[in-house]
Amino acid sequence: MVIDEAAGREHEFARLGVLVVDDDEFMLEVVRELLTGLGVSEVRSASDAENALALIDSTTESTDVIVFDLNMYGMHGTELMRQLASRHFAGGIVLMSGSSEQLLTLAVELGRDLGLRVLASLRKPVELAQLRTALESAAADRHLRGSNG
């Protein structure tokens, strides 16, 4: 039964549209591979916040989750959160940082204050189990909303 439940959750992950944003190419690829390994079939990526916003603005594909680094060159992750809030982004966000736990905690508070749905805050290097838990929340929310989001 436990195996069936896990397989069902990962089947739900296949329906999620995930965007990964990080200016570190290595981390970008690591997170993409983790997501693909969890069964996410639609994984897009951007090397900075500006490109991520352009993808969100120009695509008709659903973005259910955005996984992004807080410390990026150019537009910082906190500004990306402000931009997502101004666009009324309805999906979930997963914050990543190699910095202190305190920075992640403050960023989570900011995201929630902005009205964003913060699924998780992850310290780098990202662990598979933490990413899976965040996706489970996103898949459950997507299931409750139906397939129109």
TrEMBL record:
Gene3D superfamilies: 3.40.50.2300. Residues 17-139 form the Response regulatory domain. Transmembrane segments: none annotated. The keyword Phosphoprotein applies. Keywords: Phosphoprotein. One of its GO terms (biological process) is phosphorelay signal transduction system. SUPFAM superfamilies: CheY-like. This is Unannotated protein. It comes from freshwater metagenome. The lineage of its organism: unclassified sequences, metagenomes, ecological metagenomes.
